[in-house]
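Justification of resources, computational component.

The compute hours requested in this renewal are based largely on the per-chain cost of generating structure records like the one below. Each record pairs the submitted sequence with a full structure-token output. That output is archived, and it is also reused by downstream analysis tasks.
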Amino acid sequence: EHAAHERVLFEKISKEVAEAAPQSQALLEPAVTELSPSQDELVQANVGLLEKYGFILEPFGEGTYLVRGLPAVFREHRAGNGLLDVLDLMDQEGLVKEREAALAASIACHSAVRAGKSLSQQEMEELVRRLEVCEYPHTCPHGRPTMIHLSFRHMEREFGRR
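The structure output for this chain reads:
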């Protein structure tokens, strides 16, 4: 579920940004967020990119920001934690990918359903429908498979039955 949802969100986010229409959710109360020196450096180097993807940040002292808005795809609006999670993921991803793709993948990963979260039958069907129309439906942005094919012969072999 997570990898499939991540793929769907990644393509949605990328499309919105390409159309210059990223969705941002303003917060009723800004979250004061302290960053590590490396996170602060990442924000300073990519503040325009973060804003392009829906973050609304305001400097609030040394290494501290007011988070005034988040990408609308965030499932849980834990503003400060969301920014920190995305920065950490972006830093890891950025070692192997272009920064913009890393940011989109990080937002998608943070926003996707988590292991242990049960989806209703309707939510599962909607996720599959949305995955089917993705440009690259077979993997998440990190390359993990979103689906696997189990042949009848494979099932016979696994269960030792013919």
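The first helix runs from residue 2 to 18. The chain has six helices and three strands.
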